[in-house]
Structures
1.
Amino acid sequence: MTTSDTATDPRYPVGRFQRGVEPTPERRAEWIDEIAQTPERFRAAVQGLTDAQLDTPYRDGGWTVRQLAHHVPDSHMNAYTRFKLGLTEDNPGIKTYDEAAWALLEDTRATPVETSLALLEALHVRWVHVLRSMDDSQWARTIQHPDHGPMRLENMLALYAWHGRHHVAHVTHLRERMGW
């Protein structure tokens, strides 16, 4: 898929995650700021949506806005835990999870979106505090991903900054397309 294809692909409204971006101290600071802003941006993206709108998929065959609102804190809770494991253990193995199966669980259908927005906000306060306290040697620490091998924490930071931006854009692009 080319960059121009990605720009029009509703699965990747901000483009695919780009591996290999140099994680300089300046870039890390930008990514931390993005992570810090994700809860506010996601809250703004879903602000004022009706239940029918929350239950609208962001694309054909995609998750609903409601599922996205619950997925982001689910994913970022896992990320926060992975960071803490990486900071306290030597190259710990991490567990993956079936995101699609999680999105179908009853809590995703029945829990108010506000609950997950509040969870995302509280989680990011803690996570950003950890991120802003890390030194260069800690950024070089790794976790062992079962599918991707060792991953440096600074590369995970880039991934999760993109992840928040990616899902906020799913909602904002849907709202633009639908005129909400």
2.
Amino acid sequence: MQDRNVDFVAQTRRRGRGAVSNAAGRYEVQRHEAVSDGWEIEPERPKFETHVAVEWARSLITYNRSPDLPFDRSINPYRGCEHGCIYCFARPSHAYLGLSPGLDFETRLVAKANAPDLLRVELSKPHYRVAPLAIGTNTDPYQPIEKERKLMRACLKVLRDFKHPVAIVTKGTMVERDLDILVPMAREGLVRVGVSVTTLDDTLARRMEPRVPGPQRRLRTIRRLVQAGVPVRLMASPIVPGLSDHEIEAILQAGAEAGADAASWIMLRLPREVSPLWREWLDEHYPQRAARVMARLREMHGGKDYDARWGHRMRGEGHYAEMIAHRFDLAAARLGLSRAQPELRRDLFRVPPRVGDQLRLF
């Protein structure tokens, strides 16, 4: 029997993980269920450990045309994310690998071993036109396996050599390791970092984001980046109705005190398999609030758990969504976090010479 297709998983086997189940991906034609064989002896089953597979990707830069996003291209050195955030909207992407968006997403990871080399090749193409590149929009580039794999650091070195603008999104404090690369890039106006702080409640954070550094630790990361000269945006995302929405002003206040110069927010999103995973998590950790949380979400999406329409999916609509937006705007303006930020520079971009290239005389 394959564990990855078993739905509900006992707590002892998933300690330190976000999802409570591991249902098969939507493209799988077969499902496996654990059924008692009638014996009273319960068989011992293994815990969900982290496994990393290596992928030799054919391409790296992904382009999008979404009007909801402030960038048109991104890269992701990893598939899946060990941080285990239960609300992660990237979970459904694991179904394309024949894996579960549940526990598989946070335990069966894929490292794109040739990511730095591919990035160098794609940026060197004659037709390439520079624009800010986003990293961390799908899975976190500073998740725990980065400590060993160092793919994010290698990609940053490529971007530094090309003088290419980059916007990084992370919950991982390992970003501090790369200050030796980020600080010189920041001096040239080539980098901004967004640090996500979803809640200041340690208990809620540990349950929603089990392998993410705690809120106060992330705030210290903001402070250290800013003190080193790297501009930081505080990302209060996602805002969770009935669980973290009361913290909006406090989160922004903490981010401003840490030195962030901008802030943004997104409402909780539940695309595809994320919705049942989220509802299972609510029933286990906050059963007394589950009905209220889901009622607020459905109120913003026409009675559904989620509505993927452009211009709607990030924040929803209706009185509650408007109230959250109003509160955020007032607090951000009061704290100086709503000022327009300078665009990352594109004019410095250049393809560095390779070994054996003919050097220019003038």
